[in-house]
């Protein structure tokens, strides 16, 4: 009985276990990998994609997909920079307005998907194209620079020790996890993702829930964009393109399903995001040939997903109820 | 004088091609249980869906407490005090039992957006206890058996304080005990002044439970009145529109000596222990047991859906590989699962393709593997006709749009097309009407007389006793006893299933199984 | 829009570029289109979004429209050849800009800078600076997208210098992948600095990454003026506006420069000549030698750097 | 039969009469709008839409009909069509194949390694293949007459192999297709770049390059290959055992397995087909670009899936037809071509592109809702 409990525990936490193992492995190759500073770096680099992946998780939970997050990141960052540079808008206000850009794109997605009944894939593909096009149009493809008041934010520490971007990330994760696990809204989201028809019959306001996820995703994409610009200080025309795949990959690596109803923000998506970032950092630490790096990265991710799927079947087996009398 | 709470007035509903309801009117009284019976596809569920806000009537109106009632959505119906237990279970498999029960409400902790987990679980536990369902509120629904799910669905409806409760075949996955228990609850609710509509194909249940009855046929109200006026045979005749004298056909015993299926000491940790069963050519072997006694699990092992740890299964004297349904089918096995929605049917696929699925290889050319569609649809059509399948088009209609009972017929049909030599039927008559049941029994008898062995799992003792040559009684993953046809005795069978001793048996394990 | 039945007096030239994601390409795009328009030429622009196939399709489409000439910034040398052949067949003069065709089997006007040589020049200056320190240094390079020949050429230039002064380096160079993505660059540079805190010799394959470098080095106390004991010897390539500013402010040691305006002029001249003389398959190779703008030659050569000119204009 | 009804029932005649009248009048309305509706409801809707789009653009871009442009459109269409058809198989399964782009890259590189007749030592000495499979004399079969057929077979094998890996992981380990194919996309595109150290391999045999060359009017090897493939795929999907099983598995894997469908094999086969189609597309693209290219097709994924979805295929599986895919691809190709011909500033080209797709999608939704209410 006790042994099965131990096995069950390990299986249930296998993602975390694997995570620690990878961490140790890189640490053995490059001892400096173990430093707190490094961990902080990993977290801070994971923060923006993590924030976006949290939003993506909401969308995936309903069985949707949001391909527009990369462009949302770009457009909102561009708007933020333009407002500050050309219209001398105070930084805080500019940031708020740029979040509104994300909100608007999310609302457009939501409207098209729930009211016009367009397919999420196509809808967000359209907003992806149009939002980036619009960004290019207003910048003429020229890079946007941010004043020091923005970039200095990345060096500021909340409570004296948590870098701002990590703090934002943690707050987003905390709120999202609470919402998903502890509120009616969150649980109903899982229900909608499990079976839309049932959910309608159960009296859940499905359209409203689905719409809200795109708004959340848009908003968080804009927030992720902001977190990035505090770190890199400049936005090129290619900023954010392809991030949608990274975000989806992080969420799916964390256990989310593209068909909805399955997935968690914590630990799932967070672990997924940080794991990818950690492997990337580890490869640089280990100073591995840059041509080989992506190959190793792919193999490790494959291992992670492989272990996860084996684990799932094992857990299923272990959790079968005992109908025999002892 | 009668206290009418709800009335249908001239309700008409069409689905493309199907006239599901034609000018239906009747009333529901306070503190009464109204039975609604009719053949598969008569329109019962459609009628309930209209009341429950799932569908809108094409014509006609409804009145609730004398006021016009036009529910815009299930939520709206619920707000009007109408609660609906669907024929097809509407549970979210990725959520826990307690979450499913409170899915549309979720009691919140005061002034916070967060719900009160503890309270939710506590309420849930209470409800489950009242239904004598011993599962944890935290368990995910995907881990529950169909019967348990059905009880959870019922608990969900009971959790609200509705005035009107609609039960659309709530007992299809329940055994006698749970059914009795449910009836007790329903009677109590009735006595508290609630009104209930009860739909079922098990007419004896209907007789024992309801106060009034309405008979539906082809979408029309044929007849209605107090239950006393409707003895079973009358009900049946009204439902099917012709004279039917027997509920069960006569059995022709045709057992041959050749053993088709033989299980040797099959065991799997925590599920079944030391199962020895054999089925001979032309024999119908029944398996009876309470919910969760392991019959389904065993059937799945035999067919190769699940694997087992010890023992072996032989078909026609040759060992059958584990975990290969395909191989089992090749060796002549067929398996009608109890979970038709998830395992039996492709709901989004046309009827024809569903019927064809198993037999496709038989209809495809040797090398090119081109499917002979003409021959296929001809034979499928024949199967459909022989089962009295009620549909508009085999080719274009999706299974999803069939009535529950007709869906079940599709499942049976797809295996019949394969002409199996051993047919495993897990609750095959669940949800199908008397007429259709009769057809199924006739088919079983015919198959048996043609030499097919049948392993027949059912929770209705009567049908087992009527149809089987032998009945194996299960309890908690073990075979307790085997009755030969001549020894059939309902009380004895029930006692064994409850692990009570028979007067002539020892205590726990009554008799060793198998006569070899 | 539209009537392409070219009026005999109006010349139409299609400019097909591979992308506009960095300042360098934006400036290059601007230099060419503006010079063309100044010369009264109608310009059709096509962006291939880094897809050689799409570029091929686009070139075919503009040929169909009856343009008088095509200028491409190819995705790489090999696709340049394929596309040039298409133009040769159609009898439309083609100019290849910035990336050299991999061989001369097609006839085209080529204006290119040699990435490898220019990178080598910049890194050479950095190496000389390192020598002055009188100790071994810890080198690192930020590598671009490995699918991009420019990135590969620049890396090669860097490696050439590594091989040239084997004694100067305390260890093999740390290679930092960027995939031409600022976010990736940031994360990986941070990791690299963490893993090899002693890095004090950093070459970036493109100037557009300087803001990233600054945001990583500054918190580590390594973002200092040239000459400061904690200065990381810094070099780049492109010669963009940011590089100009950093050179002036004294943070940057050297940047490799392609003389963008000069290149644009060369290309136009040759192209117009071909069009006017009716030559359908002109063939001419023009090199932009390029150079490294360093703290040492800032005063004399700065004006030749396109980024510098733009920087001064902006100021 | 006896009708002993306690609850009152009105006479039956009136409502029935009303109903008939109603049906009759609605029928006349249907007659009037029938042509427009039939177009709207037709399966070929996306095709009609594209044709309409072309007609609208014709006066604006007369060159659209120029034979050379038609030739361009066709030559752009065939390779995309081939990959997209491969993707269709996987989408029907409720899967997705992101690795197709890497299959194109990898197969083009490997195929070129087999076929090339010379390789520049300056470029390739750093390649791990140098001295093993690649030398100054080119690849293994550099000068041989078998180079082209063997090369193409090897490319196909690469596609089948990668597809097999994907399918096996999805079928046997129940790993999510998105991640599996994402990983193999990363893996094999990195591998392709690693094998050549970023260089493109040229000097492919003439016979190979001829595949994508247009002979006569519009006939080319690509056309023949693509159409042949489309026809075969169509037959496979609609007529064969495998096709029918594919849809079944896409709708409900468990139920199919219990019904004796070899779901695992079906899944693996679908991914292998997807890989093979991608490899064939790799042949068409690389012969057109005249090189083996480690980044071939790397930006095509959105076009591939987008074309499928515009055509009417759903990511949720169980749905799809080759004709739909053809229409979707046609739409995407026409869109790109027309935008090129319009000579819009590239700053606004994205926005125009988005709007056109939006209009198409909206019309499609309108069509579906009308169709539903019709039925
Ligand atoms: N969504 C739908 N689309 C098309 N036809 C439908 C749909 N729902 C029901 N029908 C048809 O309407 C008729 C009545 O179906 P209904 O489900 O009400 O029958 P039922 O009396 O509940 O039968 P059962 O006892 O088998 O559950 C059937 O012929 C059925 O095929
Ligand atoms: N932990 C669990 N996980 C998944 N399924 C479970 C679990 N516990 C029980 N079950 C289900 O419970 C049932 C075990 O009893 P089984 O159904 O075999 O008995 P039965 O006699 O056929 O009962 P029933 O009449 O409910 O079908 C199986 O359907 C099995 O799938
Ligand atoms: Mg029903
Ligand atoms: Mg069972």
UniProtKB/TrEMBL annotation, chain A:
The keyword Cell membrane applies. Coiled coil: none annotated. It comes from the Bacteria. It is found in: Cell membrane. The chain crosses the membrane at residues 16-34, 46-67, 87-111, 118-138, 158-180, 209-227, 247-276, 288-307. Keywords: Cell membrane, Membrane, Transmembrane, Transmembrane helix. It is a multi-pass membrane protein. Its main location: membrane. InterPro entries: ABC_transp_permease. This is ABC transporter permease.
Automatic annotation (TrEMBL), chain B:
InterPro entries: AAA+_ATPase (IPR003593), ABC_carbohydrate_import_ATPase (IPR050107), ABC_transporter-like_ATP-bd (IPR003439), ABC_transporter-like_CS (IPR017871), P-loop_NTPase (IPR027417). Keywords: ATP-binding, Cell membrane, Membrane, Nucleotide-binding, Repeat, Sugar transport, Translocase, Transport. The keyword Nuclease does not apply. It holds the Pfam family ABC_tran. Residues 6-243, 255-501 form the ABC transporter domain. One of its GO terms (molecular function) is ATP binding. Coiled coil: none annotated. The keyword Cell membrane applies. It comes from the Bacteria. This is Sugar ABC transporter ATP-binding protein. It comes from Sphaerochaeta associata.
UniProtKB/TrEMBL annotation, chain D:
CDD domains: TM_PBP1_transp_AraH_like (cd06579). Its main location: membrane. InterPro entries: ABC_transp_permease. The chain crosses the membrane at residues 45-65, 77-96, 144-165, 177-196, 216-237, 266-285, 297-315, 322-339. It is found in: Cell membrane. It is a multi-pass membrane protein. It comes from the Bacteria. Keywords: Cell membrane, Membrane, Transmembrane, Transmembrane helix. This is ABC transporter permease. The lineage of its organism: Bacteria, Pseudomonadati, Spirochaetota, Spirochaetia, Spirochaetales.
């Amino acid at each position: 009985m006790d042994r099965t409990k131990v096995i069950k525990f390990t299986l249930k936490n296998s993602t975390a276990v694997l995570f620690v193992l990878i961490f140790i492995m890189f640490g053995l190759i490059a001892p400096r990998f173990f430093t707190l500073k490094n961990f902080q770096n990993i977290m801070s680099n994971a923060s923006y994609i993590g924030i976006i992946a949290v939003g993506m998780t909401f969308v995936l939970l309903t069985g949707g997909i949001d391909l527009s997050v990369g462009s949302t990141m770009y457009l909102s960052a561009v708007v933020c920079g333009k407002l500050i540079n050309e219209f001398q808008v105070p930084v805080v206000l500019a940031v708020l307005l740029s979040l509104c850009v994300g909100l608007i794109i999310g609302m457009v997605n939501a409207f098209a998907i729930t009211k016009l009944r367009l397919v999420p894939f196509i809808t967000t593909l359209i907003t992806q194209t149009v939002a980036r096009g619009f960004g290019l149009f207003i910048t003429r493809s020229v890079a946007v620079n941010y004043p020091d008041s923005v970039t200095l934010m990345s060096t500021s520490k909340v409570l004296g020790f948590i870098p701002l971007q990590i703090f934002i990330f943690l707050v987003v994760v905390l709120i999202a996890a609470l919402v998903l696990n502890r509120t009616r809204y969150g649980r109903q989201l899982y229900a909608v993702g499990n079976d839309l028809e049932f959910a309608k019959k159960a009296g859940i306001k499905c359209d409203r829930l689905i719409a809200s996820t795109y708004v959340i995703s848009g908003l968080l994409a804009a927030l992720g964009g902001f977190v990035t610009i505090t770190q890199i200080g400049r936005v090129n025309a290619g900023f954010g393109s392809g991030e949608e795949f990274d975000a989806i990959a992080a969420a799916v690596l964390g256990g989310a399903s593209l068909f909805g109803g399955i997935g968690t923000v914590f630990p799932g998506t967070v672990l997924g995001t940080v794991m990818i970032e950690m492997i990337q950092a580890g490869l640089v630490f280990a100073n591995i040939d840059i041509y080989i790096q992506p190959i190793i990265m792919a193999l490790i991710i494959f291992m992670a997903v492989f272990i996860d799927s084996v684990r799932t079947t094992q857990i299923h087996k272990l959790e079968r109820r005992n109908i025999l009398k002892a | 004088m009668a206290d009418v709470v709800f009335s249908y007035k001239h309700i008409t509903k069409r689905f493309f091609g199907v006239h599901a309801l034609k000018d239906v009117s009747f009333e529901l009284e306070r503190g009464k249980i109204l039975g609604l019976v009719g053949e598969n596809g008569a329109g019962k569920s459609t009628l309930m869906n209209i009341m429950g806000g799932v569908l809108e009537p094409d014509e006609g109106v409804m009145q609730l407490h004398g006021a016009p009632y036009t529910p815009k959505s299930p939520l709206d119906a619920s707000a009007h005090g109408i609660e609906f237990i669907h024929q097809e279970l509407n549970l979210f498999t990725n959520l826990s039992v307690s979450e499913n029960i409170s899915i549309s409400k979720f009691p919140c902790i005061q002034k916070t957006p967060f719900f009160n987990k503890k309270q939710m679980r506590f309420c849930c536990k209470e409800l489950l206890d009242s239904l004598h369902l011993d599962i944890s509120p935290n368990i995910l629904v995907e881990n529950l058996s169909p019967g348990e799910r059905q009880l959870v669905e019922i608990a969900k409806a009971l959790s609200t304080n509705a005035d009107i409760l609609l039960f659309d075949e709530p007992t299809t996955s329940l055994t006698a005990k749970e059914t009795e228990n449910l009836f007790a609850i329903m009677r109590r609710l009735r006595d508290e002044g609630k009104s209930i509509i009860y739909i079922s194909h098990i007419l004896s249940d209907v007789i024992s439970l309801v106060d009034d009855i309405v008979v539906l046929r082809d979408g029309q109200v044929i007849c209605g009145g107090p239950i006393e006026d409707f003895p079973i045979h009358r009900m049946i005749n009204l439902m099917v529109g012709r004279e039917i004298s027997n509920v069960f056909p006569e059995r022709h015993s045709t057992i041959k000596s050749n053993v088709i299926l033989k299980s040797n000491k099959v065991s799997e940790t925590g599920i079944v222990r030391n199962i020895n069963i054999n089925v001979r050519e032309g024999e119908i072997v029944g398996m009876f047991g309470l919910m969760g006694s392991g019959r389904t699990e065993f059937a799945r092992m035999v067919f190769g859906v699940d694997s087992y740890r010890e023992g072996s299964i032989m078909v026609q004297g040759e060992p059958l590989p584990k975990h290969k349904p395909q191989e089992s089918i090749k060796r002549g096995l067929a398996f009608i699962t109890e979970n038709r929605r998830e395992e039996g049917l492709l709901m989004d696929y046309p009827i024809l393709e569903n019927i064809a699925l198993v037999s496709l290889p038989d209809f495809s050319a040797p090398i090119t593997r081109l499917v002979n569609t003409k021959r296929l649809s001809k034979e499928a059509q024949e199967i459909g006709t022989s089962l009295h399948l009620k549909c508009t088009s085999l080719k274009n209609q999706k299974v999803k749009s069939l009535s529950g009972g007709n869906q079940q017929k599709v499942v049976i049909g797809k295996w019949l097309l394969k002409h199996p030599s051993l047919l495993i039927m897990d609750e095959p008559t669940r949800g199908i009407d008397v007429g259709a049941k009769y057809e199924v029994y006739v088919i079983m008898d015919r198959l048996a007389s043609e030499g097919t062995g049948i392993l027949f799992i059912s929770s209705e003792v009567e049908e087992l006793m009527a149809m089987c040559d032998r009945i194996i009684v299960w309890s908690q993953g073990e075979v307790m006893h085997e009755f030969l046809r001549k020894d059939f005795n309902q009380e004895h069978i029930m006692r064994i299933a409850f692990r009570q001793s028979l007067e002539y048996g020892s205590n726990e394990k009554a008799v060793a199984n198998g006569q070899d | 829009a539209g009537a392409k039945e070219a009026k005999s007096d109006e010349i139409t030239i299609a400019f097909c570029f591979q992308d506009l994601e960095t300042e360098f390409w934006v400036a290059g795009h601007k230099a060419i289109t503006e010079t063309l328009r100044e010369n009264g030429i109608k310009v059709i622009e096509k962006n291939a979004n880094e897809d050689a196939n799409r570029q091929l399709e686009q070139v075919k489409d503009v040929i169909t429209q009856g343009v008088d000439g095509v200028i491409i910034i190819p995705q790489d040398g090999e696709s340049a050849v394929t596309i040039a052949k298409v133009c040769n067949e159609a009898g439309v003069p083609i100019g290849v800009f910035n990336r050299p065709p991999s061989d001369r089997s097609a006839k085209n006007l080529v204006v290119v800078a040699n990435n490898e040589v220019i990178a080598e020049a910049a890194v050479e200056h950095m190496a000389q600076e390192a020598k002055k320190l009188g100790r071994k240094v810890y080198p690192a390079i930020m590598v671009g997208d490995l699918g991009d020949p420019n990135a590969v050429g620049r890396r090669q230039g860097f490696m050439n210098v590594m091989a040239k002064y084997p004694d100067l380096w305390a260890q093999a160079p740390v290679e930092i992948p960027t995939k031409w993505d600022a976010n990736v660059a940031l994360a990986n540079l941070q990791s690299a600095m963490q893993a090899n805190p002693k890095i004090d010799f950093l070459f970036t394959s493109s100037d557009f990454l300087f803001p990233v470098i600054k945001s990583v080095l500054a918190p580590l106390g390594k973002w200092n003026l040239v000459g400061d004991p904690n200065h990381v010897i810094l070099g780049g390539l492109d010669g963009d506006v940011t590089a100009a500013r950093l050179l002036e402010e004294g943070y940057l040691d050297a940047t490799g420069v392609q003389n963008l305006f000069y290149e644009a002029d060369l290309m136009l001249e040759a192209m117009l000549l071909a069009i006017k003389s009716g030559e359908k398959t002109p063939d001419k190779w023009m090199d932009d030698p390029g150079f490294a703008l360093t703290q040492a030659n800032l005063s004399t050569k700065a004006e030749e750097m396109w980024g510098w000119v733009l920087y001064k204009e902006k100021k | 039969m006896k009708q002993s009804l306690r609850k009152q029932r009105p006479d039956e005649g009136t409502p029935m009469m009303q109903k008939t009248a109603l049906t009759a009048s609605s029928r006349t309305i249907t007659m009037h709008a029938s042509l427009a509706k039939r177009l709207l409801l037709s399966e070929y809707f996306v095709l009609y839409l594209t044709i309409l789009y072309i007609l609208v653009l014709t006066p604006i871009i007369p060159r659209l009909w120029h034979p050379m442009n038609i030739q361009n459109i066709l030559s752009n269409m065939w390779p995309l069509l081939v990959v997209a058809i491969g993707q269709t198989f996987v989408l029907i399964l409720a899967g997705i194949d992101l690795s197709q782009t890497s299959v194109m890259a990898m197969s083009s590189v490997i195929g070129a390694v087999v076929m090339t007749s010379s390789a520049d030592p300056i470029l390739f000495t750093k390649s791990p293949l140098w001295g093993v499979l690649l030398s100054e004399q080119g690849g293994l079969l550099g000068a041989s007459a078998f180079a082209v057929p063997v090369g193409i077979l090897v490319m196909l094998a690469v596609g089948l192999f990668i597809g097999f890996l994907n399918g096996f992981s999805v079928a046997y380990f129940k790993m999510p297709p998105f991640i599996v194919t994402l990983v193999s996309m990363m893996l094999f595109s990195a591998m392709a770049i690693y094998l050549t150290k970023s260089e493109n391999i040229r000097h492919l045999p003439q016979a190979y390059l001829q595949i994508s060359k247009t002979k006569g009017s519009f006939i080319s090897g690509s056309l023949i290959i693509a159409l042949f493939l489309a026809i075969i795929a169509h037959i496979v999907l609609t007529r064969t055992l495998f096709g029918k099983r594919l849809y079944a598995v896409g709708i409900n894997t468990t139920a199919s397995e219990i019904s004796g469908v070899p779901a695992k094999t079906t899944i693996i086969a679908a991914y292998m087909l997807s890989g093979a189609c991608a490899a064939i597309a790799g042949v068409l693209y690389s012969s057109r670009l005249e090189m083996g290219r480690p980044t071939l097709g790397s930006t095509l994924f959105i076009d591939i899936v987008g074309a499928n979805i515009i055509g009417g295929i759903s990511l949720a599986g169980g749905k799809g037809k080759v004709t739909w895919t053809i229409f979707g691809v046609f739409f995407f190709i026409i869109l790109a071509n027309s935008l090129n011909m319009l000579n819009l500033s590239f700053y606004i080209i994205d926005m125009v592109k988005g709007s056109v797709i939006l209009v198409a999608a909206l019309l499609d939704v309108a069509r579906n809702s009308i169709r539903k209410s019709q039925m």
